[in-house]
Design goal:
Layout (H helix, E strand, L loop, with lengths): L9 H7 L3 H10 L5 E5 L2 H13 L7 E5 L5 H15 L16 H15 L8 E4 L6 H4 L4 H12 L10 H12 L10 E4 L9
Parallel strand pairs: 1-2, 3-4
Length: 200
């Protein structure tokens, strides 16, 4: 028999929480870009594509590539398919790759890559979210009930008094991806309601 005791929040959690990548795709879609979306799950990809269309991005500007960023050939295929379809890549947002790095590693990687690529006029920046309401922790195995409790326990530790919403992160990524940040490279932009400045 399935024990539902700890699963009571399940429907609302899955409806309420979307990922950072998903929120960013929909937020950027309003700018009418050519958008290549990748992920391992075709259903989720189609769902995000539909949301992008709902905010006005034509279907022919959306390319869906089922791929796993842990597989080197898949990364190569993503790049090749996108260039073949759209002619070039202006902005790369490797959202899921953060999995594989420590924060210190990511910070150093951002700065050194920015210095290395500056001669090609390529900018490299990182957006660093604080605790963000997504399905991330649920996918990692936390029960919805435990996640809800964890969120509540963390709220009071956030200077601005709430968890990060995916759209908060999406707005920062839009800034970094656009000409609005045209002379910024090697920077780490925190989107955490001030959390990283709070004394421990
Ligand atoms: N949520 C937070 O509190 C938080 C805080 C700081 C940093 N971050 C970082 O922000 C990033 C996004 O987190 P999130 O909260 O939005 O997570 P999420 O809701 O679990 O979304 C992760 C996304 O990445 C895709 N993905 C995961 N592994 C992949 C792989 N190997 N290849 C291709 N696609 C893959 C997933 O799609 P498929 O399942 O379809 O592949 C999903 O769309 C992560 O790197 C996370 O470490 C999150």
């Amino acid at each position: 028999m399935i024990n539902l005791e700890n699963e009571l929040f399940l429907p609302s959690i899955f409806l309420k929480y979307s990922g950072i990548g998903e929120a960013t795709a929909v937020h950027l879609a309003e700018l009418q870009p050519f958008l290549a979306l990748t992920g391992r799950n075709e259903y989720n990809l189609a769902k995000v594509a539909k949301q992008c269309q709902e905010v006005g991005l034509p279907a022919e500007r959306i390319l869906l590539i089922k791929a796993d960023l842990n597989i080197e050939e898949d990364i190569k295929r993503i790049m090749e398919t996108t260039v073949k379809q759209f002619g070039r890549i202006d902005v790369l947002f490797p959202n899921a790759m953060i999995y594989a790095m420590t924060k210190a590693g990511l910070d150093n990687f951002t700065k050194s890559l920015a210095m290395e690529l500056a001669k090609y006029k390529v900018r490299v920046n990182s957006v660093l979210p604080g605790l963000t309401k997504t399905a991330f922790q649920l996918r990692a195995g936390l029960t919805p009930y435990a996640y809800q409790k964890y969120l509540e326990s963390q709220m009071e530790k956030q200077p601005l008094g709430r968890a990060v919403a995916p759209i908060d992160v999406a707005k920062a990524i839009k800034f970094m991806a656009s000409d609005e940040s045209s002379f910024i490279t090697g920077e780490l932009l925190y989107v955490d309601g001030g959390g990283h400045n709070k004394p421990v």
